[in-house]
Automatic annotation (TrEMBL):
<keyword id="KW-0540">Nuclease</keyword>
<dbReference type="InterPro" id="IPR012296">
    <property type="entry name" value="Nuclease_put_TT1808"/>
</dbReference>
<keyword id="KW-0255">Endonuclease</keyword>
<protein>
    <submittedName>
        <fullName>Uma2 family endonuclease</fullName>
    </submittedName>
</protein>
<dbReference type="GO" id="GO:0004519">
    <property type="term" value="F:endonuclease activity"/>
</dbReference>
<feature type="domain" description="Putative restriction endonuclease">
    <location>
        <begin position="14"/>
        <end position="185"/>
    </location>
</feature>
<keyword id="KW-0378">Hydrolase</keyword>
<dbReference type="InterPro" id="IPR011335">
    <property type="entry name" value="Restrct_endonuc-II-like"/>
</dbReference>
<dbReference type="InterPro" id="IPR008538">
    <property type="entry name" value="Uma2"/>
</dbReference>
<dbReference type="Pfam" id="PF05685">
    <property type="entry name" value="Uma2"/>
</dbReference>
Amino acid sequence: MSTAEKLEERYTYADYARWSEDESWELIDGIAYAMAAPSRIHQEIVFELGGQVRNYLQGKSCRGYVAPFDVRLPRQNEADDKVDTVVQPDLTVICDRSKLDDKGCRGAPDWIVEVLSPATTLKDMHTKTRLYEQHGVREYWIVHPTERWVMVYTLDEAGKYSRPSVYGMDEPLALQVLPDLSIDWAFVEQI
C-alpha cells in the first residue's frame, strides 16, 4: 500500500500487524501516520535516557522500553484486532506487568517520553498529549533536543493533565511517577 492509501482509510491493529516491518507506522484513532527515521541527536538522547532508566529499574518490578515498541491503547475492552490506536513512544515505562505481552504493551504506560523531531512535533505536542491524557498515562515528557528543554505533563486526581511544567536541561530532572529517579542531562552538552 502507498502512504496516500493508508492515510485515506481507518485501520486497526489487525491491519497494522500485517504491514511490512520495513515501514514504521503509528495508528491514532484509526489514522495511520508514517514515521521517519530519527536523527542522530534524537537517537543519542533516547539511547542515553534508556541507559539511565535501565540502570534505575534493575531489581525493580517496572519495565522500560525504547522504540520500536508497540503500545496498544484500547478504547474499552475490545480485542487487539479491533484496537485502533498503536503508538511507538521513544521511551516507555510500565509498572503494571499484566499490561505486557509478546506484542508489547496493552494499556497506558506509567511514563512516556517523546523526543521531538521536525516531522513529529505537532503530533507529539498536541495529538499525543490529548491521547495520553485520555488513556491515563500518568506522566508524559516531551523533549526538545535542539532547544534543550523538557515539557512535563502529569495527571491530576481528576485524570487530567495539569498545566505542563517546562525545564531546562541544566540540572537533573526528577520524575513524579518514579520519585527516586532523576534524569541527568549532562550528556546533552556532548552531543
